[in-house]
Design goal:
Helix content: 25-40%
Shape: flat
Strand content: 15-25%
């Protein structure tokens, strides 16, 4: 039986209240070998070797088709498509724009950085039909003892001293969870009037002060 977790998330709309969503409690991650054995258990006419061969063939052909630019729909599973982003070895840190005079990216600057997936409705219905839920725990936000203005000022002082900052630094500095710090940096500190900006992406993103006479 699966358990559900009541999770508290930070307010991103300026209403002053937190929000709630529910998620499944993660139990374990099945290894490839364990998954093959589970498939064999329910479909014993197919040997583990046959199941593994079919899955290998599906994965290889899926990669081939996505590399061609094709979307692939597998009934009962979902639809897959390739995602593009910056090539880490290109030396570029930002995407270009449509503004005149800005340097354009070439094919060498781009690479497949992910695979998008949209679940088939039949799969969702099947999972829902098999799932029996019971109450799990709660995941509450860590409350900072500083106001948002104070957190920004503390970050500015840190940046004046260190020169740059990671999300984990902002979290430790202000008594926030990593996820809350990431959201606050992403949604609350950037914009035309912000004194803190960033470059890079995801775990490699760093934050630094905008060069202004007042800072």
């Amino acid at each position: 039986m699966a358990k559900y977790i009541k999770k508290e998330v930070a307010d991103l709309n300026g209403t002053g209240s937190t929000q709630v969503y529910y998620r499944m409690e993660r139990r374990e991650t099945l290894s490839y070998a364990d998954f093959i054995q589970q498939c064999h258990y329910y479909h014993q006419l197919c040997s583990p070797g046959v199941i593994q061969s079919v899955m290998t063939a599906v994965c290889e052909q899926l990669a081939t088709e996505l590399a061609k630019g094709n979307n692939v729909r597998i009934d009962g599973l979902g639809t897959f498509h390739a995602k593009l982003g910056l090539n880490k070895n290109s030396g570029r840190t930002e995407l270009d724009t449509f503004e005149e005079g800005t340097p354009r990216l070439n094919a060498m600057s781009l690479a497949v950085t992910g695979v998008g997936y949209k679940a088939d409705k039949a799969l969702v219905r099947s999972v829902a039909g098999k799932c029996k839920l019971e109450r799990g725990g709660e995941d509450r936000l860590r409350k900072s003892k500083y106001t948002k203005a104070e957190r920004i000022e503390r970050a500015i002082r840190f940046l004046r001293k260190e020169g740059f900052m990671h999300v984990r630094d902002y979290a430790a500095l202000n008594g926030l969870s990593y996820s809350t710090a990431y959201r606050e940096l992403g949604y609350g500190l950037e914009g035309e009037s912000a004194v803190i900006t960033s470059r890079g992406s995801k775990s490699a993103r760093i934050y630094y002060l905008v060069e202004k006479n007042s800072y």
